[in-house]
Amino acid sequence: MSVVQILYFVIFLSSCVLGAIVGLGGGVIIRPILDVIDYHEVPDIAFLTSTAVLIMALVSTGKKVMDETKIDFKKAGLICLGSLIGGTLGDQLLRIPATHFGDNNVRIVQTMATIFFLGLAIFLTEKCTLRYEVKNKLFYPLLGIFLGSLAVFLGIGGGPINVPVFMILFSLPVKQATAYSIVVIFFSHLSRLITMGIEGRGYGSYDLSFLPYIIPAAIIGGIIGAIISRRVTDNAVRKTFTVTMCVLIAINIFNLVMFFRG
Does residue 130 surpass a pLDDT of 70? Predict the structure, then answer.
């Protein structure tokens, strides 16, 4: 057991707890921190993050269902169908710049886009008062494609934009929006992991030695996060979401400066 593996366990555990509470999936927290540590390359970070987010989302959703959190699974299913397609599309979009421009340039693009969407998420959550009730079922898979593509391309789990989008388009309170976000995150990352296994060199090409630390962290984090989410108020979840976004913007700006220097 190395120091880095223990550090990864702590990072993934705390990220999955926070991600499960505010519907972020954990990826938006994990990826910039792993960029700072700079131990793995982009493909390994993507694989480890998607694995953790997938497990956390499954555990967290199961716990929320047992706690009787209201989720319209017909609506969620159509959105998730789109997110499966979107996850595959986002992975293909990520492969193009990774192949032609190198890891550092891909990280620069991801980080700049992440900063923009984090800022947009803060505005939509705190300042935007628009609320709709979209009922056209044809719209749901299209929304899923967009959210799934964005989640996987940025490597951030999708939550930062999922939560305010669900609040606005479906008039959901923030806690219910986080539940829908976690469901969509699960399917977008499921499609990504399947794509990773089918294409390229298979799962053996990734650093699997970290899975014994990451998988337990994701399971424990998903359970703890779901328990905390049930016990706190909507306002507490919203404020936690906003504070988390602000901290992540700061981390991503620091990373961006380091990437340009490198």
Answer: yes
